[in-house]
Write a sequence for this structure.
């Protein structure tokens, strides 16, 4: 019981340190449209969870053991490869779904991306290069959410529940931005609550996938790389599929919000669900072996 | 490898800290000056891009010195043979140094981006230097990818000299081309920039240039990995050249 209380206190301290600066900056510098007026504030947002972890571990004298700061187990290469390949595949699978189910006029071959292959390839390569060079920002979030919060929550509840709670907390951490239209815009029913729900769903499944990467490698770096690549690759490479070769936006059967959900969410949900099953199966088989021995 | 990386940071943390503070001093001072009211009127986007490039050059140059000095920190035969006999082995010894360089360069990019953001908050005329910083990040990795295997094979002194010779040869070839090659593009310098701008206005040329630029940039990552493999291969041969 005292251990549970200690863990709860540590989680509370971490959450205060991760949430407070982000909420203050986001409300103080909000442009009321989902972005920030201060570039410096915007650039630092992703670093606060890592800063919160460092302060929490120092203040609580917890130390830095089990902080997933090592470079991983042997044969972690395939998980690093997956951390790079998943964000690269995401915009293209999403584009395919967008054109199958959402776009009303024209096909995927008419899109700006496919009619100008040179620019599309250059954009993809540059976004990967940018994501790799700026991976410290991804590390900033992942050290906090996957490297600290999820393992701490696992001490209080079953692993799948810890992943779900982390996802919800992670999504709400984006609250001030979502409230003004970050990620999903403002042009949808139930704004901004619909955006909050969508973000929570997205963050739960991404949380599962990123936790799986972290657990398999025992390192936070694949998740950090994956997170940053998702941020740099997804939007920049999906956008050219929403315009035709003349630069006109395709007509959609739904609004942008639902278009985004129908096209981008399936791969996020599938990857997250598969990760959850893999994590659960591994854990149950480990428990069965223990029981047999 | 993580243990060796920890040892590397633990034994060099004062040096790393001083180099980090020292290298970021210039950009931070520049950012402060950029924000001052006197400077705001005189600064254009083009000038600020040049200044960001100069600062990034300085920061990565100083960072490069730090990365080099850490690479040759363990140049002792006893240590080299000891580490080769451990389960982590040469892969860990070399890998820790390559990873340190990678992480240090990534942190440099982040620090420069934050510095640029701080300056741009004070003056809207300033250009975003992120692309330049990322470009310098890849140049830095390329330089280290050339230098580290040479330092592993021949020791730090000869390795660095060889790198300078390679750069010197490249510079010599460039100057020889400028003297004897086809330099018609530079024949009339009065119209050079007009022609350059005209070329940049050609959409297809710009697309091709961007594609080549992106391929070269991303190729640095596998080159860096190959350099690591080469350094592992050459490490024990290089140990023989150590003085101590």
């Amino acid at each position: 019981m005292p251990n549970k209380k200690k863990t709860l206190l540590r989680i509370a301290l971490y959450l205060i340190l991760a949430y407070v600066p982000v909420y203050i900056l986001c409300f103080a510098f909000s442009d009321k449209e989902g972005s920030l007026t201060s570039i410096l504030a915007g650039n630092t947002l992703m670093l606060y969870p890592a800063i919160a972890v460092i302060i929490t571990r120092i203040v609580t004298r917890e130390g830095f053991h089990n902080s997933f700061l090592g470079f991983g187990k042997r044969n972690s290469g395939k998980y690093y490869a997956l951390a790079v390949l998943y964000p690269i595949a995401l915009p293209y699978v999403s584009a395919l779904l967008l054109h199958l189910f959402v776009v009303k006029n024209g096909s995927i071959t008419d899109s700006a991306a496919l009619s100008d292959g040179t620019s599309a390839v250059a954009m993809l390569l540059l976004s990967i290069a940018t994501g790799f060079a700026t991976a410290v920002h991804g590390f900033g979030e992942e050290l906090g959410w996957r490297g600290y919060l999820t393992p701490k929550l696992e001490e209080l509840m079953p692993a799948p529940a810890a992943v779900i709670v982390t996802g919800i907390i992670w999504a709400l951490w984006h609250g001030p931005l979502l409230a003004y239209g970050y990620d999903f815009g403002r042009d949808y029913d139930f704004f901004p609550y619909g955006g909050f729900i969508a973000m929570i769903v997205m963050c739960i499944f991404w949380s599962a996938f990123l936790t799986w990467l972290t657990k398999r490698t025992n390192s936070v770096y694949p998740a950090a790389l994956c997170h940053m690549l998702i941020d740099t690759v997804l939007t920049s490479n999906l956008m050219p599929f929403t315009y035709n070769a003349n630069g006109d936006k395709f007509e959609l059967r739904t609004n942008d919000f639902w278009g985004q959900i129908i096209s981008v969410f399936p791969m996020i949900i599938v990857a997250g669900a598969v990760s959850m099953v893999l994590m659960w199966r591994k854990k149950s088989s480990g428990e069965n072996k223990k029981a047999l021995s | 490898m993580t243990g060796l990386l920890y040892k590397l940071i633990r034994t060099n943390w004062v040096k790393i800290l001083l180099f980090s503070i020292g290298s970021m001093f210039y950009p931070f001072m520049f950012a402060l000056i950029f924000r001052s009211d006197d400077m705001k009127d005189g600064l254009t986007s083009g000038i600020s891009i040049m200044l960001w490039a100069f600062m990034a050059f300085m920061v990565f140059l100083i960072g490069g010195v730090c990365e080099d000095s850490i690479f040759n920190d363990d140049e002792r035969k006893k240590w080299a043979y000891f580490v080769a006999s451990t389960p982590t082995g040469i892969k860990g010894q070399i890998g820790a140094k390559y990873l340190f360089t990678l992480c240090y360069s990534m942190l440099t990019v982040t620090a420069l981006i934050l510095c640029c953001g701080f300056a741009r908050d004070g003056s809207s005329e300033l250009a975003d230097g992120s692309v330049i910083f990322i470009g310098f990040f890849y140049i830095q990795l390329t330089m280290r990818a050339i230098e580290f295997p040479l330092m592993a094979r021949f020791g730090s002194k000869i390795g660095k000299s060889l790198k300078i010779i390679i750069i010197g040869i490249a510079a010599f070839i460039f100057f020889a081309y400028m003297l004897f090659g086809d330099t018609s593009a530079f024949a009339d310098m009065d119209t050079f920039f007009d022609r350059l701008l005209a070329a940049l206005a050609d959409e297809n040329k710009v697309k091709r240039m961007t594609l080549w630029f992106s391929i070269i940039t991303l190729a640095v990552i596998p080159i860096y990995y190959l350099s690591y493999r080469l350094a592992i291969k050459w490490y024990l041969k290089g140990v023989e050249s150590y003085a101590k």
About this structure: The mean pLDDT of chain A is 91. Chain A has twelve helices and no strands.
